[in-house]
Amino acid sequence: MNTEITAIILAGGKSSRMGRDKSLLRLGNITLIEHVIMSIRPYVKSILIVTNEQEKYSFLNNVRFVPDIEKDQGPLIGLISGISAVDTTWSFITSCDMPLINGGIINVLVKNIDGYVVAPLSSMGFEPMLSLYSTQVLPYAFEFIKDNKKSVNGFISFMDKLNLVKTIDRELIIKEFGKEMLFNINDEVDYNSLLEVFNG
User: Fold this and answer.
1) Could you give the CA distance from residue 78 to residue 110 in angstroms, rounded to a whole number?
2) How far does CA 75 lie from the centroid of its chain?
3) Span 142-189, pLDDT tens digits
4) pLDDT for 103-134, tens place per residue?
5) How many H helices and E strands in the chain?
6) Separation of alpha carbons 119 and 166, rounded Å
7) Within a 10 A sphere around the Cβ of 152, how many other Cβ atoms?
8) Where are the domains of the chain?
9) Rounded to an integer, what distance in angstroms lies between the CA atom of residue 196 and that of residue 187?
10) Which of 14, 19, 48, 156 has its CA 20 to 30 A from that of 77?
């Protein structure tokens, strides 16, 4: 367990492409968000869920909740809301729709701590929902959103230009943990693909 790491799960999305709440879809006998929690819990001090609908997660144990500081403004606001509420210097950010995540990635990121963000990177960009963020990113994040910028990937790129990001080759993550852990669900096609992988 990393006693100085909080895991923050972003669960405030509208699931508009899915048409129903992604976090409560079932994979086997439990929900997607429970899969995420089970995978990362052994590696962190505590788990914080960013959501504006805490009541629907009343079945979850040993987690804290915090609402978005502004509703319906996207994952960057969720990230800021979560990091603003933690009592650790570093936070691991992930989302409720990545149920095949391997919590071991947190140890890899921790070993590479440098700057204010530690993030897997490929030619397609950063993996913002599998990254570590220091509380020191907050003033930069508030500055970034002043211009109505909402992309977490864009924010990490902004931090990278300031030499405040430690990057890890995404291929090394895939080699160690498998490509499945990068799978996230956007729609019914993704969900059906996930069920095939899980049941395969």
Assistant:
1) 22
2) 9
3) 999 988 788 999 999 999 999 999 999 999 999 999 988 888 888 888
4) 999 999 999 999 999 999 988 889 999 999 99
5) 7, 10
6) 6
7) 25
8) 2-194
9) 15
10) 19
Q: What is the mean pLDDT of the chain?
A: 90
CA 136/CA 140 separation, integer angstroms: 8
* 3-state SS record for 117-167: EEEEEECCEECHHHEEEEHHHHHHHHHHHCCCCCCHHHHHHHHHHCCCEEE
End-to-end CA separation in angstroms for the chain: 31
Note if the pTM is more than 0.85: yes
Tokens of 17: 């492409």
